[in-house]
Amino acid sequence: MKVPKSLSCSRQVYSSPLKMQLDYGSSYVSQMLVLEMLSSGLYDKHMERTRTRLKQKRDFLLQLLNRHLADYAMWSKPSGGFFIWVAFNSNIDTRKLFKECLNSGVLINPGFIYHDHHHTVRLSFAYPSFEEMEEGILTMKALLAYNG
């Protein structure tokens, strides 16, 4: 890219709109950190650990669903992403379930905020711990049993 004469001083280039166009304003230190992670293999190791952990968490949530919610809903193993979509039996009011879960300290994403399928929820396995996922599923089970 040809630098306009008005930006030819290196000090001006560093703080100019040109720098923003070239690297979106990221700092030199962060650029060097990324370079080191990519060239040393640290990034690849980190990604492998992350993929392994996410797979473990996904499989754990699927086990919990199979063990505790099979009478109330169905789902499938996701081939990607960080969520499992759960489709509840048509007699289950997911708006009510959402509110009751929220009041019990469990956050679920009801399907009605994404589409017009009112009997679905989206459960994340990326952020919550194993213990939090188990507590959340057990809470949902208790609420469903109480209301059923």
UniProtKB/TrEMBL annotation:
Residues forming coiled coils: none
Protein name as it appears in the record: Aminotransferase class I/II-fold pyridoxal phosphate-dependent enzyme
InterPro entries recorded: Aminotransferase_I/II_large (IPR004839), Class-I_PLP-dep_aminotransf (IPR050859), PyrdxlP-dep_Trfase (IPR015424), PyrdxlP-dep_Trfase_major (IPR015421), PyrdxlP-dep_Trfase_small (IPR015422)
GO molecular function, one term: pyridoxal phosphate binding
Keywords: Aminotransferase, Pyridoxal phosphate, Transferase
Cofactor or coenzyme needed: pyridoxal 5'-phosphate
Signal peptide: none
Domain Aminotransferase class I/classII large: 10-136
Single GO BP term: alpha-amino acid metabolic process
